[in-house]
TrEMBL record:
Superkingdom, natural source: Bacteria
Membrane-traversing stretches: none
Entry's Gene Ontology molecular function annotations: isomerase activity
Protein name: Sugar phosphate isomerase/epimerase
Keyword list, A-Z: Isomerase
Alphabetical list of SUPFAM superfamilies matching this protein: Xylose isomerase-like
Record-linked Gene3D superfamilies: Divalent-metal-dependent TIM barrel enzymes
One Pfam family of this chain: AP_endonuc_2
Domain Xylose isomerase-like TIM barrel, chain residue ranges per copy: 42-245
Length: 308
């Protein structure tokens, strides 16, 4: 799909710190023969013009802080966040298992000088077969577990590691559509729980990123930048395709060829008057090893053209 490049920024987006992530190199798992080696990711993300990265799936990049610090510094890279996956709607029974994972990722995230932990809810259907793992709608009790568990997680992560969580609305999870995102925000403490607004996932689920920023701006703590191809998305919605196969169909596309338009999103985020990371995450697993770098370079040029 093609798009018209931005005519140029109306102002400099000096509160937005742009980066990229292993996801933009087709990395979804700690180890997978279809993924590029971590050294190549670090080399190419730096070559593409980025200075900020996320850790990606724990174990993909070196987990020894000293080694990772050396590897990133050698390429003039810094870490903005780590990522964890949770099933907090299942209640207190999953807390110990959740915290075991969170503590590992938070330890490395803090050691790398980052201040954010991106929290992704668990999927309600199998990412490959589309089989239901559990109902797509939570019960009232599960919503309460989700809200209380997320607040506890935010509190513990802040107190023990000095990190702020950013909950990531995600396709095929219970925090996805505008209705679910709004319900989650209204159920959680603004002093503890913010969002990682992923522009692609929110559009995938029918949401308007600019509207969300304008309505709940004080809850936007982090951004992921991506776009969806509306033609592929229409097929995905028609066929009920799960997220993983939808990515293989190319539902997430290279900017500026999809939706939402990123310049209005960035301008709205700039208008919040706070410093925000905006990390490019173009889902494309799996992908040929030579595909990510040219896309990353073009995307970085496009974002500079937006003022970021």
């Amino acid at each position: 799909m093609t798009g018209t490049p931005s005519p140029g920024p109306s102002r400099t987006l000096d509160r937005i710190r742009v980066g990229s992530a292993p996801d933009s190199w087709g990395v979804w798992f700690p180890e997978d023969p279809e993924q590029v080696p971590w050294q190549r990711f670090l080399d190419e993300v730096s070559q593409a013009g980025y200075q900020w990265i996320e850790l990606g799936p724990y174990g993909y990049l070196p987990t020894d802080p000293a080694r990772l610090a050396d590897e990133t510094a050698a390429r003039n890279l810094r870490v903005s966040a780590g990522t964890v996956f949770t099933s907090l709607h299942q209640g207190p029974a999953v807390w110990d298992e959740t915290w075991e994972q969170v503590s590992r990722v938070a330890t490395l995230t803090r050691a790398m000088g980052a201040a954010h932990l991106v929290v992704i809810p668990s999927f309600w259907r199998d990412d490959k077969t589309a089989a239901l793992i559990e109902p797509s709608e939570l019960t009232t009790e599960q919503w309460r577990h989700l809200a209380e568990g997320t607040e506890r997680l935010a509190r513990e992560v802040r107190e023990r590691y000095g990190l702020e969580i950013a909950v990531h609305p995600h396709a095929d999870t219970h925090i996805d559509t505008e209705e679910h995102v709004t319900r989650f925000l209204d159920a959680t403490d603004p002093a503890l729980v913010n969002l990682c607004l992923d522009t692609g996932h929110y559009a995938y689920c029918g949401g308007d990123s600019v509207k969300l920023i304008e309505t709940y701006g004080e809850r936007i703590g982090y951004l992921h930048l991506k776009q969806v191809d509306p033609r592929v998305l229409a097929e995905v919605v028609r066929d009920g395709t799960p997220f993983g196969p939808a990515v293989r169909q190319g539902v997430m596309c290279e900017p500026p060829g999809g939706l939402p338009a990123l310049e209005p999103v960035l301008t709205a985020a700039q208008g919040l008057g706070v410093d925000l990371f905006a990390i490019v995450e173009q889902d494309m697993y799996p992908c040929p090893p030579d595909q990510p770098l040219p896309i990353a370079e073009r995307t970085r040029r496009f974002l500079r053209g937006c003022g970021a």
